[in-house]
Specification:
Oligomer: single chain
Structural class: alpha/beta
Strand order of the largest sheet: 1-2-3-4-5-6
Strand content: 25-35%
Bound molecules: zinc ion
Number of strands: 14
Length: 207
């Protein structure tokens, strides 16, 4: 399995393109810079199998509509985040564009299945509310790769002071992640990758 990190937008939000031998890709958290993401798809000769959002914050979903127009594919997000993803509640700073709703009839609700398969890529959903109500981490068990969104960062964790944030829920979510195998590599929504083992040993919020 291949994973390509692409930092996007003013907040350097991390979009990840994941694919395997058949060249069909899942795009996680297409925050901004649709043209850059699209260029990377072409460069690696990839076809989009799905778009998956760890959560709905504006810095993670702003390129969805543009990408989906060029490369239509199912879009998966937890319905608790979908509820406010494309309305005024998801407004960042005033200068910041509010996410445009992709032109799809229906979204896939991440909570409706424990595990998801798109093309030959299979991941498990781990619900990790706290940063947002519908936040999820997505784990590829065979490759031991986990996309953690803004729940767990290298050396830190997501803030809980934004609308819908819940410090107690985040604490529970972090204890869930702490129990996972230490050799799982984590790929957060901002910053560098790490492993569960390193975070368990060094991340204050995992103590
Ligand atoms: Zn966020
Ligand atoms: Zn973020």
């Amino acid at each position: 399995m291949n994973i390509l990190p692409i930092p996007t937008g003013a907040y350097q939000e991390m979009c990840y393109i994941v694919w395997s031998a058949d060249k069909k890709a899942i795009i996680f958290d297409p925050g901004h810079d649709a043209d850059v993401i699209f260029h990377a798809l072409n460069e690696h000769d990839l076809e989009v199998a799905a778009y998956v959002c760890t959560h709905a914050h504006y810095d993670h979903i702003n390129a969805l509509a543009d990408l989906h127009e060029k490369a239509p594919a199912p879009i998966a997000m937890h319905s608790k985040d979908l509820a406010w993803a494309f309305d005024e509640r998801n407004q960042g700073p005033p200068y910041y564009p509010r996410p445009r709703r992709p032109n799809v009839e229906k979204f896939e609700h991440l909570e409706s299945a424990e595990s998801w398969t798109f093309a030959d890529l299979r991941f498990q959903r781990i619900e990790t509310p706290g940063h947002t109500p519908g936040g999820c981490c997505l784990l590829f068990p065979e490759s031991k790769i986990m996309i953690t969104g803004d729940t767990l960062f290298k050396g830190s964790c997501g803030r809980t002071d934004l609308p819908g944030g819940d410090p107690r829920a985040l604490k529970d979510s972090l204890s869930t992640l702490k129990k996972l195998s230490e050799d799982i590599r984590i790929f957060p929504g901002h910053g560098d990758d790490s492993t569960i083992g390193v975070e368990r040993a060094t991340n204050f919020f995992m103590q």
